[in-house]
C-alpha cells in the first residue's frame, strides 16, 4: 500500500507539474497575446496622434488663409467705400452741371423768343419806314 501511495503521489506530482507547465504555457500565450494587443493599440494611438497633428496643422493653415482673406476683404471694402464716395462726389457735380445746363437751355429759349420778338418788331418798323 505504501508503495502504491508513493506511486500515486509521484503521479500526482507529475500531473501537477504537467498542469503547472500547461498553465504556465497558457499564461505565456495569454501574455504574448496581450503584448501583441498593446503593441497594436500603441500603433493605433501613434497613427491617431499623427492624424491629429496633421489636422491641427491643416486647421492652422486654414485659419491663416481665412485671416488673409478677411484682410483682403477689409481692403476691398475700404477701396469700395472710397470709390462710392468719389462716385457720389461725381454724381453731385454731374447733377449741378445738368441743372446749370437746364437753366442755360431755358435762358437760350427765352433769348430766342426775345430775338424773334425783336426781329418781328424790327421787321414791322422797317415795313412802316418803307411805307412812309
Automatic annotation (TrEMBL):
One of its GO terms (cellular component) is cytosol. It comes from the Eukaryota. InterPro entries: Dsh/Dvl-rel. Residues 24-128 form a coiled coil. GO terms for biological process: canonical Wnt signaling pathway. Keywords: Coiled coil. PANTHER family: DIXIN, SEGMENT POLARITY PROTEIN DISHEVELLED. This is DIXC1 protein. It comes from Crypturellus undulatus. The gene is Dixdc1.
